[in-house]
Amino acid sequence: MIIIQLKGGMGNQMFQYALYRQLKKLGREVKIDDETGFVDDELRIPVLQRFGISYDKATREEIVKLTDSKMDIFSRIRRKLTGRKTFRIDEESGIFDPRILEVEDAYLVGYWQSDKYFANEEVEKEIREAFEKRPQEVMQDSVSWTILQQIECCESVSLHIRRTDYIDEEHIHIHNICTEKYYKSAIDEVRNQYPSAVFFIFTDDKDWCRQHFRGPNFFVVDLDEDTNTDIAEMTLMSRCKHHILANSSFSWWAAWLNDNPGKIVIAPSKWINNRKMDDIYTARMKKIAI
Question: What is the mean pLDDT of each run of 10 residues along the chain (290 residues)?
Fold first, then answer.
């Protein structure tokens, strides 16, 4: 059996679910642990159900067995004497590891942020069916519908800016902040091909964006907050014709879900500080220095 630990934000959980689908396609018995990864995370919860997704959920007994974590006295003594006999595999870097697709028994802990983990065409179709939502399924306010109409009627570009959780003391040493220079270079790159491009800014720091990106072709998207706001935002982003990514799995997925063959996708050349992330970049992406 293989158990995948669910953890992180929505984009991260989407990558973990994509690996789940690939391993299923390969004939493995696969389940998801959607509890352990959130025990010490006060900010995040499992969110895949918001897509209407269901999955095989691992039991506590199955998790304990794969991780050799029984807490009875005899098991604790045995571990002290002979070591833990665990099947836990922790992701070592952001580089694609083909061995993950070959394991038979494993408790997988990581983000698995590469489309190489779900390269099968049938799996890709299944993932699109799971994550692509019709607007009427997730948009329940007039603001969302107005923005969707604007996106569909112009040379629209989603511009993702993520700041608040990247600049706190806990995460600032891990995450890069995409600079104004990066965004201005990316904007120029798009405008070189599409001078009339309109930029729809999706962000967690709306005030900062309004101060730094002004003009008739910049719109800060501001939706009414509800349970499905994140999915509504991703749906709107994916409907844009082109994409300027932050170093975020959220905007990665929005760009991936866009099947426009002529799309421009621009990504920061450095994704994260503490690990290599070469394989997060797809063949369609153009990298620009951060």
Answer: 97 98 98 96 92 95 86 60 78 95 97 97 96 86 92 97 66 68 97 98 94 95 83 95 97 96 95 90 94
Domain 138-288 classification at class level: alpha beta
Place of tokens 């153009």: 286
